[in-house]
Amino acid sequence: MSTSAMPRRGVLTLVALLLVALNLRPALTSVAPVLGNIGEALALSPSWQGILTTLPVLFLGLAAPLAPRLIRRIGPERSVFAALVVLAMALLVRPYIGTLGLFLGTAIAGSCIGIIGVLLPGIVKRDFPRRVSIMTGLYTVALNLGASAAAGTTEPLRQLLDGVAQGASLSAWQGALAFWLLPAVIAALLWLPQLRGTKPTRVPARRGARLRHDSLAWQVSLFMGLQSSLAYIVFGWLPTILQDRGLAAVTAGLALSVSILLQVSTAILAPLIGSRMRDQRAVLAVVITLTLTGLLGCLYAPIDGVWLWIVVLGLGQGGTFSMALTLLALRAPDATTAASLSAMAQGIGYTLAALGPLLVGVLHDWSGGWNVIGVLVSTIALSALVMALGAGRNRQVASTQGTS
Known about the structure:
Keywords: Membrane, Transmembrane, Transmembrane helix. The chain has helices spanning 5-21, 26-29, 35-42, 46-63, 66-74, 76-93, 98-127, 132-164, 169-178, 181-191, 215-244, 249-275, 281-300, 306-330, 335-353, 355-367, 373-391.
């Protein structure tokens, strides 16, 4: 390939990556704004609503180990394309085939997102080895924009469809959820040029086994899971919490959207600052503290001042997630190890993270309110801080290059 073609290939890959990243959260954040409508239409208790918000996160983790197998069989680019196609199909059918179909489609969508989430850090490490931090920031920005768009527009879209359908609220929430298959279809079409000339990556099947005996790898994985648990509690329950505290449904959805949108700033800044420091412990401690402060403010502070806590929460969570992704690259000595660490961290991490939104539903069902949720999020945040102090040290995991 000529030197003039290299930058063009890099730009095309960057654009394609960002379009794919846009699709890694709408399947999740589109549910929360209409969760009440879903629960009413399908007679779901708060506990079952908690299971619905938990399923995609659980399958993010359960499906993550499939990514290395797909790389070996069809290569990373074709794996991303296949996952996008299945994601679009799951988003199309999940609102329309009853309660079982809703849960099954949600699980499949979470699996596809989990696979893509494992694949992208390895592609970034391979194609942009000298720009890992900025690429991670841009990737996180795109992810947040997709999440924010779904959180902020799903309820207005439902209301629009409800008006068109003359009060058929069931059809309205179904159409609002199904709408989010369109970005997945567009991303799949625009990803097609990445398939040219690609082939499976021949790597040993047990290349990541060494990481399971590496304490640093476990610290990175547990930090990924604990900060993700807080994120999915917000994605799954914040609009419902704010509605119960007095906000209108559209305003509550907008609050989640604004919080996610604000993550863009720290999603870029935190990795840039952290990668220039001797280690990342200080940055991690700051963003975790902001996250917990924002969550507690949303739960307990006067509702008139909720927008302050929405801002604090967004700034914190943008930094925690982008730093979790950055650690996957910074703690790996090569692209092969980065892919293995990504699979381990997201597999273990998201499986652990699924407990967060599930416990919120169970505790709310048990207590009849939201006060006890503060104890849960505080415990998770403090545990994340402990893991961050280990994962943030200036060390690298053992290389899995050539591991058999």
